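Re: that chain you flagged

S.,

Sorry for the slow reply, it's been a week of failed gels. I finally had a moment to sit down with the sequence you sent. For the record, here it is as I used it:
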Amino acid sequence: MYNLRMTDTFPLVSEWLKPATLKAAVLESNSLEVFYWPFNTGGLSKTTDKLWVKQWVKTADIATESEACVRAERLDQELQLTFSDKLYDIVTCHPPCTPHFCHLLFKTGLKPATNVLPAPEAIHYQYGIDNIPCYDLEFAFKVNADFSNVVEGLHMVIDKIYDDAGKGKYPFNLPAEFRICKASQAFLSPGYDTDPNALYCFLEVLSIKGTGGYDAFSAELGDAWMKRFGGRPHWAKMWEHVPDVHARLRAQPGNVERFAKFENVRKKYDPKEIFFGNASLRAVIRGEKLPAGFNGKAVAGF
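Prediction finished late last night. Pasting the structure tokens below so you have them in one place:
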């Protein structure tokens, strides 16, 4: 077992979200996760908004918190998120409250910190997430050499949030976040690559379940990430409502070939085709036509 130093900082978007800064942060960390909380400095101006940057670095230093302290913090997280779920009813019922509500939660709930914890505790740092039912769309795309496409991808989210707010629309009320991961050789992984050292960005947008307009908000972003970066969806989250997503995934370079490789393996271990009880997967992997009346929004969970 080893320990990780977990550091939370809150730099300005305008100062930190730059390709060179992001690349340096990734290369000097064992892991990195970046969050953007909407309207986090109040008002309807993004010029002073901040990011939440979370970094993990392996260390020989001893843990700064006892097991009892960590358990108490986990219980506190469970209770906080249970309570927050009730508060979020205000936002779904009264969308114009969204900027004020998000600003309040960001201001009261997040602080700069540095802690050393055993790796499992540092990695699984947040408990109670399941207490807040939410909508979630996530796409992965290959990080380019200078990391500029990751910066562009998050700016797409921020720009859309404020464009919608300017029209009196508030479809987004939880964080956008991204992780940078090594490529996978699993045939169906959205981060699949023949180069094991390639890096992939997993970028997601979340909103409380019942938030009006999230379906269109997320579909537009998913569509843009596919067009701009060749994005692929996280299968277990919402994606079927993205325009023409099934056909577009099959049309991406190399996908038909790797789906065929997956099929060769699946046939051996799944002769009864239990895996293909899902019409979306049959359409993407086999190229079958979607059933009559297929409703991507309904299948996605809206």
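What I noticed first: The two ends are 42 Å apart (CA to CA).

Talk soon,
D.
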